[in-house]
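Please discuss these two lines.
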Amino acid sequence: MAWRQRGGDRGGIPLEPARVHRSHTGLAKSDWKPRRILGLWVVVIAVCALAALAGYALLDGASGPTLAFVLAFAGGAVLTMLADTMMPEAFEHAGRATGLATTLGFVVAFAISAFE
């Protein structure tokens, strides 16, 4: 995953959405044309880039507690997205192991950030 590095923090946006194959979006299955799917992803990437630029500019001199709040909010948003959209499909394919894998992944990510 490509990340934009800034000093010691991990500000930036992942570029993974650009790699999402159209058959995995569900849009191809609902008769969306490939050109329209690509256009949607271009818009998503542009909006994400603008949001990252705005965050970079607006939070440049922000205090530690402000940055902690923003990062916690973003982390909660990612967890909500996982729980709402990705986990039901994962449970369908992998069953109960999905919860364990999710928890272990969260613990590993937390440990890595805690011991930096």
